[in-house]
Amino acid sequence: MKLIENDQQVVLEPAEPADAVVIWLHGLGADGHDFVPVVPHLGLPDELAVRFIFPQAPVQPVTVNNGYPMRSWYDILAMGASREINEQTLFESVVRINQLISDQIESGVSPARILLVGFSQGGAVAYETGLSYPQTLAGVAALSTYLAIDPAAHLQRELSFPVWIGHGTGDDVVPLSLGEQARQRLTELGLSPHWQTWPMAHEVVLDEVQALGRWISECFN
Fold first, then answer.
1. If pLDDT is split at 50, 70 and 90, which confidence band does 157 have?
2. CA distance 127 to 140
3. Which among 26, 79, 80, 216 is least buried, having the fewest CB atoms inside 10 angstroms?
């Protein structure tokens, strides 16, 4: 795969013309390079021509980190059993990812072949984008994350796409309870999330990556 990068994103371009796209959003304080090394460990079939796009969040102050500027998809105002966020900054990130999806559709990739993956804060953006986008995407994979807002107020259509949720039982950054709450809310909204946990902290492990890869393969089958 060919690596292409700029200030906005990092892209892994397949050798053959891409007929599927994974948009993978990093966590707070990381960048678009964070999950590039993970791709080979997904174990995707050779015949899948998948373009991986890793957008880079803007650098902006984060309130819970004493206002220190870092790459962030939205401002977090308070942490604890739940998250208090600046919703406007979340929506700005959703608009950006919406445009990225639209660009891929215009390039000839079907919405049903575009999949969102997000870790932690990036997962919250993936959730909101997938739930609110006007067309049905291939699916959303949410790693160690939560629903930043209740999606019910922003639904534009009946929900009918795969959701994969992975979480660590020892996560002390995004507690397991927040992942479980997201699973329950999505179920109430008519989805059937695949839920799986691992004995890990706020991170990803090889077993999780391989399980995610199997799910991605099924989504693009």
1. low
2. 7
3. 80
Give the other-Cβ count within 10 Å of 198's Cβ.
19
* CB neighbour list of residue 85: distance below 8 Å, 6 or more residues apart: 74, 75, 76, 77, 148, 149
Whether residue 142 has pLDDT greater than 70: yes
- Any catalytic annotation for residue 120? yes
Is 171 annotated in the active site? yes
Q: What is the CA radius of gyration of the chain?
A: 16
Q: How many CB atoms lie within 10 A of CB 139?
A: 22
Candidates 26, 144, 167, 202; catalytic one: 202
Summarize pLDDT for 193-205 with one digit per residue, the tens: 999 999 999 999 9
Beta carbons within 8 Å of 33's beta carbon, 6+ residues apart? 5, 10, 54
Q: What pLDDT digit, counting tens, does each position of 57-76 carry?
A: 999 999 999 999 999 999 99
Give residue 103's pLDDT band: very low, low, confident or very high (50, 70, 90).
Answer: very high
CA dist., res. 45 & res. 43, Å (int): 6
Q: Which of 143, 150, 151 is nearest to 174 (CA)?
A: 143
H helical segments located in the chain: 87-106, 121-132, 176-188, 206-219
Type of residue found at 201:
A
Q: Which residue in 72, 93, 120, 144 is the catalytic one? A: 120
The type of residue at 143 is L
Q: Count other Cβ atoms within 10 Å, centred on residue 39.
A: 18
75 belongs to the catalytic site: no
